[in-house]
Amino acid sequence: MSSPRRFAVVTGASTGIGLELARCCAKAGFDLLIAADEERIHRAAAELATTGVDVEPVQVDLSTMDGVDALYAATKGRPVDALLANAGRGLGHAFLDQDFAKARCVIDTNITGTTYLIHRIGNDMRRRQSGRILITGSIAGFVPGSFQAVYSASKAFLNSFSFAIREELKHSGVSVTCLMPGATATDFFKRAEMLDTSVGTIGKDDPARVAKLGFDAMMNGEGDVVSGWKNRIQSTVAQVVPAGLLASQHRKWAEPGTAK
């Protein structure tokens, strides 16, 4: 009798990096529980099921505790071998000009929902002394992101959080990896209302390549991976340049009306 396939939970999996991460999992033979807050998650599930693995979609709002609880319940007690916590939201424009409900949703999705989900599934992994966690951070977390202030701060939280819990879990059998992409060709900038900015219109990285780098790093138990050589340079420079200068530079990329 063959052993059951490994089981992965992937959030934000309807499009973009999340969908590509789910494709990586399916190709590697993982059964999947995939989640997003939109109808497209069902189309993604239908496509992924053609690879021969079992796929269950859950349309749920992961900015809420109830939404995270619903996703956790959908595992039906099956041990999760890999949690790919990718769900996230972006938001452009100056902070005081933003609708605060939208700004709060960024915080609730990127920080509260993500950390609560990791707390729930991570505890199960630690009890079993086995599991892999991939957190989608961002190189945006290295920079005070003027005109993306809440988003960049949320990614700074995730970057830091991932390194901290990796150290805490070092001898537990549970690995934690942080994927830190730069600008990627997804729906992110449209959803963040940033199509009139320089960063919204420049060339972007391939989400499939970004996801493959993150997936491979997770499977190898690596602590972090920055996608693309330009992004690696930016992340290195950001650690030595004064924060005020970084914020001023970011304004040139993210302020509305800077699109070329």
Automatic annotation (TrEMBL):
Signal peptide: none annotated. It holds the Pfam family adh_short. It comes from the Bacteria. InterPro entries: NAD(P)-bd_dom_sf (IPR036291), Sc_DH/Rdtase_CS (IPR020904), SDR_fam (IPR002347). GO terms for molecular function: oxidoreductase activity. PROSITE patterns: ADH_SHORT (PS00061). Keywords: Oxidoreductase. GO terms for cellular component: membrane. Belongs to the short-chain dehydrogenases/reductases (SDR) family. This is Short-subunit dehydrogenase. It comes from Rhodopseudomonas rhenobacensis.
